[in-house]
Design goal:
Length: 386
């Protein structure tokens, strides 16, 4: 059946013949409000929507498919394959898929497969994961990568493993370096409750020739070059005490120790003695000393005494001190002592000695011969065995 259209239509004029309608766009009569086939194309002129395989389009362009690719774009040119802009006439932060297949969010020229840029106050990218699988995974070319970069559903970050069990879980060697203008690398942690620890590795204690190695799988910690001394124990001295016992000072971790006491005062001029493990016998010592008012050397000896004598001392109302090295107190053998720093009023000297009891000890005590001690701190340092 021939259809005769109006000879001089106006733009947007609608012409109906039977159950079909057309609209004049200025040059051509276009099908209006009709399907080109029962399920292929629907033009909803009332709501300005187009449906493909959908007779009730819910968006400006509504495409539905059951099998096959829903939308295929082939771009053999240089322009963008897909572009979504806001109401700005020239949007500098659109969503774009360029001719190379790069996806850009907030940029017109993506430089990677997925390029997100944000210059304002909006969050650049947000991932909300209410499930149990990883929120983010970066794998290499292996089809099943057992050592990827992962952010789990609980927010744990894993490097070199698929299931991180801590906020940062790393398998493999790590290098932590301070910048050229930084003082060093700081490690901070919590020991439980409200207590915490903080270690600052600064150039004066950790240089290019002295490297700290964190524990390996056996729990071993190693320091290359000279490891120096490791602080093992500290104990504060009370007020007006005649002796102080330090427990848990010696163990299998260290063979030899340095013991110091500083920061306190003595009520009278006195020697300070030391016993180990509560033993009150078998102490031998030799003291070489001088008196500032005399021009000759002096000496003193103790045989089978009740304590190591002359490990320190102090003058009345002045600073008290102990500085001595002790070798093998935890071993079941004779314990050696050396470099005891003796001082009592105008007497100054050095003490060497031995405890001739083959027993293993974990504690020691410092005691004054006269008066009391007040304040200060006793510190125990261990020489690492390897």
């Amino acid at each position: 059946m021939a259809i005769t259209f109006p000879a001089s239509p106006t733009i947007s004029q609608i012409f109906t013949s039977g159950n079909k309608s057309w609209i004049w766009d200025g040059t051509t009569w276009l099908a209006y409000g009709a399907s080109l086939s029962p399920t292929v194309l629907k033009v909803d002129t009332a709501n300005l929507r187009v449906g493909i395989n959908n007779q009730s389009p819910a968006a400006t362009l509504d495409v539905q498919t059951i099998t096959g690719t829903a939308v295929s774009i082939t771009n053999t040119g240089t322009g963008n394959s897909f572009l979504v802009e806001d109401s700005a006439s020239t949007d500098s932060t659109p969503f774009v898929i360029d001719a190379a297949g790069l996806v850009g969010v907030g940029t017109t020229t993506p430089g990677a497969r997925f390029d997100v840029q944000e210059s304002g106050s909006t969050v650049a990218m947000r991932i909300t994961n209410a499930g149990s699988q990883n929120s983010f995974v970066v794998e290499d070319s292996t089809s099943t990568d057992t050592s990827p970069f992962v952010i789990s559903a609980t927010g744990n970050v894993g490097i070199g493993l698929t299931s991180p069990s801590a906020k940062l879980d790393i398998i493999g060697a790590q290098i932590v370096r301070a910048g050229s203008t930084q003082d060093g690398v700081q490690l901070q942690g919590r020991a439980g409750g409200t207590s915490s620890w903080s270690t600052l590795l600064i150039p004066t204690t950790l240089t290019a020739s002295r490297t700290l190695t964190l524990p390996d799988k056996t729990g071993t910690v190693a320091l290359t070059s000279d490891p120096g001394l490791i602080l093992v124990k500290t104990q504060t001295v009370g007020t007006g005490v005649s002796s102080v016992t330090v427990t848990g000072a010696f163990s299998t971790d260290y063979d030899n120790y340095k013991i110091t006491y500083i920061g306190g005062t003595c009520s009278a001029s006195t020697d300070i003695e030391m016993t180990i493990g509560g033993s009150a016998t078998g102490y031998y010592g030799f003291l070489s000393y001088g008196i500032t008012t005399l021009a000759s050397n002096q000496a003193a000896v103790k045989n089978n005494a009740t304590a190591f004598p002359w490990v320190g001392g102090g003058a009345a109302g002045q600073a008290s001190h102990v500085h001595v090295e002790i070798m093998g107190p935890f071993k079941a053998a004779y314990t050696k002592i050396r470099n005891g720093s003796y001082q009592n009023d105008n007497n100054y000297g050095t003490m060497q000695g031995e405890h001739r009891v083959a027993t293993s000890y974990t504690s020691f005590a410092l005691a004054v011969l006269t008066g009391t001690m007040t304040g200060g701190t006793i510190r125990v340092y261990g020489y690492r065995n390897s």
